[in-house]
Amino acid sequence: QARSTLGPALDKATGTLLYNAAARLKDPKHLGFLVGYIARREILTDLQLSAALEYVRSHPLEPLDAADFERACGVGVCVTPEQIEEAVEAVISKHRAELLAERYHFNMGLLMGEARSRLQWADGKTIKNEVDLQVLHLLGPKTEADLEKKPKAAKARPAPVEKQKAAVVENGEVDTETRSLLEQLRGEALKFHKPGENYKTEGYVVTPNTMALLKQHLAITGGQVRTRFPPEPNGILHIGHAKAINFNFGYAKANGGVCFLRYDDTNPEKEEEKYFTAIREMVEWLGYQPYAVTHASDYFDQLYTWALELIRRGQAYVCHQKVEEIKGHNPPPSPWRDRPVEESLLLFEDMRKGKFGEGEATLRMKLVMEDGKMDPVAYRVKFTPHHRTGDKWCIYPTYDYTHCLCDSIEHITHSLCTKEFQARRSSYFWLCNVLDVYCPVQWEYGRLNLLYTVVSKRKIIRLVETGAVRDWDDPRLFTLTALRRRGFPPEAINNFCARVGVTVAQATMEPHLLEACARDVLNEQAPRAMAVLEPLKVTITNFPAPKVRLPQAGGVGSGFPEGQHSPPPSPQALEVLVPNFPADESRGFHKVPFQATIYIEETDFREEVDKGYKRLAPGQPVGLRHAGYVIAVQNVIKDASGRVIELEVTCTKSDMAEKPKAFIHWVSEPLACEVRLYERLFLHKNPEDPSEVPGGFLSDLNPDSLRVVRNALVDSSVLSARPFDKFQFERLGYFSVDPDSEAGKMVFNRTVTLKEDPGKA
């Protein structure tokens, strides 16, 4: 096209502009228009070309207004050498004092930028030459001092900032980790379109009605970002959904928008009320508040009306092929594809009236999807009452038909979904456009998966049915209810999603990365307590007389039934103050009794000392944490089998004794409790991979994934704790109160150990 105007020989500058125009223009229908301007030498610079490309993207409808285009691209604008000289003189005059002081160390790019801003279409090289000339005239040639490198200014170290406590606020803006997620999602970070500029998205289909529909859309939304989280209410949310929740709610939050929670309730056979409740509960637990809670079923009437319109427009038909016949990507063409519109309208009405059995008729759309699948189903027959609409309908819409139209009804600006839905993008755009309704933009991102687990609903149901796990909230699973029960704080899950980042590629992560996020949060949130998992009785034979009697704990307001008390302190009990957070004693203390009988971990005593062993042994005293005493073994008491069942020791005040090699935790007048210790549920990283686990995921279960310690002891300071309250049991790990706790027997789940197990990393 250019040669028809310029002849066979093209100069390099024109060739470069032509190449850039062809490479950067996404919609080829305007290519000839741009080439004409380049060939006629009306677009001469890359700056003009960039402006031209932006204009074309912003004006998708034909014909383009040539006069407006030329004004936007500087066509015909002539910048004279005199204008450039005057602009540079003005800029240098403005910075004259700094130039004389700093000479050639001054940032000359600043002069270039300011001169360029005064003359938008001036040639950059000409401006640079003029700046160099006038600076030389002002300062003269460079001296040796000018040639020396400018010393780098020392960076001022920021004052240490006190570590903030993680906190959830409305719509999910949490501590610094999650704010970094918001930074990933804010503004131009993701290169998403602005509300109302859907047509600038690559692949977006523009129709003659597009601009009018977008204008109506902006009038309704006010230019606000709108997203939605659309789960199916047929199962419990898992860790992968946490990324989707963070992405959808987070993108709206980061850009001053709103996010809908919309249940995709189009399959009444699998939906239960408990799933609706659990989904919303988990969204809010993660710290997000939906702008509105909606259901696909809210729009069943409108969807049905649109289905009739789709048939009238010749874009849908009633088909009688069986489900088995149309499965896969190469099914035989439907013999009913070209049936008359009136016939399909009557048959679709018969479907609605229940005159066809399940599987005897479907409504199919006339399109080929990106993955090659032909004519996806829009409606199918199901004689199952709906939990919200009852027996009103016996036909229900599919995801392919429902999703984009619900997005359109709610005026969603960014329909964010995982990568496997990319094949449905063409049907998404096609359906909205063929019905002449507002068309949102679908954007895809990579799924988040974890190793050593399964998250599919079908597989979790099999685990429950076989007794491998108790239920959907078994703490060995990675459903969100299971993670909450195990004790993972919502901030830790959000922080984990922030660390994974917003990626297009699928992310498969190790569980220990999630556990590290939990440790970071729990270290700041979980008050300390002392507990003993395998108790060994210790009697202090020279226990000192008490000064203060410890008040009785429990009773009204304790969080457990009235009448439950910690064991009454003996007359010989002392009172010990233990900091809730030893690194920050300003956050308070709690009291624990200390008397002549205490309990320590069995593993904290050995009769024979190995090299490197620093805890209690005959001839090797230890300190008792927080008590201010050092104990030394005097007598070891064993049962008939030779097992150590009790130690008799003496105590010495810490300031009177030699500093011991170690300090151990202990309990006195404790509460009995049950502790559940969890390990990975599966032995292999990918239990669903036949090459790794030929026998199937049920053959890969870890027999040691749960160990129950039924006779553990914990200090009485935790008596008032409620289910899901979290503690750090000193030297043992982070633990959470399980809902199975009852009067007289608390139950704790170990969330994570204090340090990462090197074998799991």
TrEMBL record:
Gene Ontology CC: one annotated term: cytosol
Span of domain Glutaminyl-tRNA synthetase class Ib non-specific RNA-binding: 9-124, 127-215
Database matches in Gene3D superfamilies: 1.10.10.2420, Glutaminyl-tRNA synthetase, non-specific RNA binding region part 1, domain 1 (1.10.8.1290), HUPs (3.40.50.620), Ribosomal Protein L25, Chain P (2.40.240.10)
Stretches assigned to the tRNA synthetases class I (E and Q) anti-codon binding domain: 663-738
GO BP field: glutaminyl-tRNA aminoacylation
Keywords: Aminoacyl-tRNA synthetase, ATP-binding, Ligase, Nucleotide-binding, Protein biosynthesis
A Pfam family this chain is assigned to: tRNA-synt_1c_C2
EC number(s) recorded for this UniProt protein: 6.1.1.18
Reactions catalysed according to its record: tRNA(Gln) + L-glutamine + ATP = L-glutaminyl-tRNA(Gln) + AMP + diphosphate
Domain Glutamyl/glutaminyl-tRNA synthetase class Ib catalytic, residue spans: 224-523
GO MF annotation terms: ATP binding; glutamine-tRNA ligase activity
Residue intervals of the Glutamyl/glutaminyl-tRNA synthetase class Ib anti-codon binding domain: 572-651
PANTHER family, A to Z: GLUTAMINE--TRNA LIGASE, GLUTAMINE-TRNA LIGASE
NCBIfam families from the UniProt entry: glnS
Family: Belongs to the class-I aminoacyl-tRNA synthetase family.
Name used for this protein in its record: glutamine--tRNA ligase
Encoding gene per record: Qars
